Sequence to fold (278 residues):
Amino acid sequence: MRLTCGSCQALCHGVESPRGGLGILKYGNAQARQTAIIGRLREAGFLGVAEVARDLGVSEMTVRRDLRQLEATRAVNLVHGGASLPMEERDASFQARTGVDAEAKRRIAVGASTLVGARDAIAIDAGTTTLAMAWQLPEPFAGCVVTHSVPVIDHLMQRTELRLIALGGDLHRPSRAFVGQMTVDGCAGLRVRSLFLGAAAMDERGVYVDADVERPTKLALMAAADRVILLADHSKAGRSAPVLLCGLERISTLVTDARPPIPVGQRLKHYGVEVMIC
Fold:
């Protein structure tokens, strides 16, 4: 992960990494660090203490102190192992996240769309990458889409040639999706060929989401699918988030834009997960 922030360029001194580009960043004062943390949170939604310390080139104790100061001003919420944005910030950040790594998401979406048959029944999870996949559904597609994502529902309402099953429930504003027992109950009796799953992060232990309230709906959709296709760009790999959704053995295919880190790749191979790099 790389932390950069335009507003603090004068205070930050980047060090070129052997792989090229900006590697570990050295931040001279708390204001610069905290500005960078907020900027990255607006992109990712959650940051772990260890990864922030590594990328800022400071100790975990320093990061925890910065996070406590940010929490005191209500700029972040402290959660187990790191920090997330306040609810109102997360709600406003969905549109901003849509534009983050947009080209990578578009490539993943195009690749994922090739896995859809013309009359398949599929499910599309909530998230910005899965939304991009909905935009890329081929015009000949005249099957059925099951989804709890409000933006996906809004977009596919225009596609009159396909059948759309919208799962209702309680609106979870940060993900712009319906969740809760009503949503889970709506999955009962459904069967789809493929679920296109979104996630907050992925490492060798499994797939993560930002909030526990998302977990039951995602698991219900996974249970209704013959195969689970995870859509995750390079920024999600090798990271964790607050809630473990499932192990990698639950994934049939990973569609991504870069080769996963070695530990993740080894576990994917161990479980026979197909990796499509777009």
Summary: The mean pLDDT is 84.
